[in-house]
């Protein structure tokens, strides 16, 4: 995390996982794979990353997707996070 990031900033690779956890429960990214499908160019506008948690337990899996303003896929990914309970 950068020093200039606001205190509520959550790394994008774990935001869907973080939203499901109770207070004092953390997570670490165990695996992150990204496939770039096309270049992200300025003329395509802002990029948006979406993801939905598919499995939630001791390990949590979710497939993020990056799209441009025309809803064209720029990148797809898979991520596995390990939940760390106190």
Textual characterization of the structure:
The protein is mostly beta strands. The chain has a domain at 47-86. The chain is 5% helix and 38% strand. Residues 1-10 have low confidence and may be disordered.
The radius of gyration computed from the alpha-carbon positions, rounded to a whole number of angstroms, is: 14 Å
Class based on secondary structure composition and strand pairing: mainly beta
| Shape type | elongated
Low-confidence stretches: 1-10
- Indicate the mean pLDDT: 78
Strand tally is 5
Indicate the topology.
Blueprint: H1 15-18, E1 26-36, E2 48-50, E3 59-62, E4 65-67, E5 73-84
Question: Main traits of this protein?
Answer:
elongated, mainly beta, 5 strands, 1 helix, single chain, 86 residues
Task: Explain briefly what this protein structure is.
With 86 residues, the chain is mostly beta strands. It contains 1 helix and 5 strands.
């Amino acid at each position: 995390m950068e020093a200039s990031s606001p205190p509520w900033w959550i790394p994008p690779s774990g935001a869907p996982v973080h939203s499901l956890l109770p207070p004092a429960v953390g997570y670490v990214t165990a695996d992150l794979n990204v496939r770039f499908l096309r270049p992200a160019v300025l003329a395509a506008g802002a990029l948006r990353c979406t993801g939905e948690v598919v499995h939630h337990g001791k390990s949590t899996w979710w497939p993020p997707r990056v799209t441009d303003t025309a809803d064209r896929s720029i990148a797809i990914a898979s991520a596995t996070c390990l939940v760390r309970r106190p």
